[in-house]
Amino acid sequence: MINQNKEHMNIVIVGHVDHGKSTVIGRLLADTGSLPEGKLESVRERCRKNAKPFEYAFLLDALKDEQEQGITIDAARCFFKSDKRDYIIIDAPGHIEFLRNMVTGAARAEAALLVIDANEGIQENSKRHGYLLSMLGIKKIAVLVNKMDLVDYDKTVFENIVTEYSAFLETIGVTPLTFVPISAFHGDNIIGYSDHTPWYEGKDVLSLLDSLDSEGASDQEPFRMPVQGIYKFTKGGDDRRIVAGTVEYGSLSVGDHVTFYPSGKGSKVKSIESFATEKKTTIGAGYATGFTLEEQIYIKRGEIAVKTDDVIEPISATGFKANIFWLGKTPLTIGKSYNFKVGTMTVSGTVEEIIRTLDASSLDASVKAVVDRHEVAEILIKTNKPVAFDLSQGLAKTSRFVIVDDYEIAGGGIILSQMGVDTVANEHKIIKNSRWQNSLVNRQQRVDRLSQIPTLVLISGGKDSGKKPLAKALEKDLFERGRLAYFLSVGNIKYGVDDGRQDQAHILQLTEVANVLLDAGNITISTATDLTREDYGIIDNHIDGHKCIKVWIGDGGDINEADIIIKSEELALGTNIITDFLKDQGIIYKGA
Ligand code: GTP
Ligand code: MG
Fold first, then answer.
1. Is 108 a pocket residue for ligand 1 (Cβ < 6 Å)?
2. Distance CA 471, CA 48 (A)
3. Neighbouring residues of 400: CB distance < 8 A, sequence distance ≥ 6
4. Does the Cβ of 194 fall within 6 Å of ligand 1?
5. What pLDDT is attached to residue 137?
6. Per-residue model confidence as pLDDT tens digits over 58-75
7. Which of 167, 384, 461, 592 could anchor a disulfide with 553, C-beta 3.0 to 4.6 Å?
8. What whole-number distance in Å separates Cα of residue 464 and Cα of residue 493?
């Protein structure tokens, strides 16, 4: 197992099928003495007995069987060590697994080895994998030109591949660290120099890896920890909750004040709880950890924990522009609903626009209505809830996401910008569907400006249950928090536009007026006595696709329809209950 206290580095190995990934890993394990005692001999012996040629891949299979018994290790990872540090090498069996691991944090690589068969030359996947690495922001890429034995260690073959592949990488903006001519099978230039390539003056693979700087010590960066889960201590009435996740950037110490995005909730760090190591007061990037807070605030999986004082804040938004890599069996389509996993947050949403597409190996560009398999594309995504993220040019890891189509990961990408910044033209589509006169300011721009999703908060309950005082208190509370909120009193409607009775025509009029306020971006608060399921149906149908949050005070009524039920004895806490709910739903959030 990896020693948590010794420096370690995660690397990923990619390349076209059969170009020698498993053999490179096997060699690294064998030649660094990282294999269990006798393993190599026993696998060689078994091959001899069965009259099969020995393969390093068999060695890895044999290791996997062993490792799978210990549930903590997943089958795609192997460990080896140099004098300098421990390595975890991830054999990405396919694009999808690779994307999933990179985005969910299951296995993050900071450097990559890309294997190309000297004899077969550059293949489609050699290019696609190169693209994928660059898109995920992995900058440390070394290209291993393998099977040099099959081309008689010919310098010209090597140099031709260097020239051709460098040209490809250049077009996608990648500068590889270096190219190494190797024969993984025979062990040339893996550890130590090979006599077969006297013309090669660069490093062997292990020295090359050892020469890379690890990102582990990036404590100068802003702190980012996507929340994986909230865990309760269960023993003896202990009511502390641990906020758990993996630190992507920066460091956090006891006493620091943290803010969670997008909800905007925050508190001070009381303790740091790390697993299987001694108690710490500071945690740094790359570690799975947890912390407790001084106040019990309700936060959820998917939020990003940030140090409140950090200069660079993440972005919370309901849409973004992204660069994606599509692997789905069916093409990515505008308007279809997908799930987007951004860090640990899953939100549903749709693709609003496909700006351009590109074949990931030929780099042929086109403008099309769909994105086909193995294409990359620049697209606009609209989400149904605000989500927090960073931009790829700043903090790449917290800008990554995957696209889930029908329960399967079908693509992945990085976020380039927040929607609304340079996408105004596109947004006018939304306005065209509206019955209002075209405005030059659209719904999305208002959402982005105000960091709130216009919503009708409709408070109902029995007569004299305290609806109006609560509505007024809520308006004041939201206003004082810097929100745009408006209490639309039923009384005003009554005297203004109707004869004073609350009937269904009256409810329709309420929604008419509410629509104007909602269109202007307000959290619109209103009250009505004893609303029924039918009334709610009318409201839902008439508020122009805006959200309606139904609050019920006291007992009775159609409380199945209510989003929030406030018991009479809780009334004093009513505004807190509602604002917390609005935060949890992403209706009000902390913008950048
Ligand atoms: P997949 O996992 O199926 O994508 O393949 P891979 O990239 O892991 O390739 P693997 O390491 O299994 O090697 C494929 C074949 O190439 C095996 O038969 C290896 O023995 C052979 N091979 C790998 N490296 C070399 C080499 O340096 N020289 C020669 N001659 N054969 C090699
Ligand atoms: Mg393999």
1. no
2. 82
3. 102, 103, 136, 137, 342, 343, 392, 412, 413, 414, 415
4. no
5. 81
6. 888 888 766 554 433 454
7. 461
8. 19
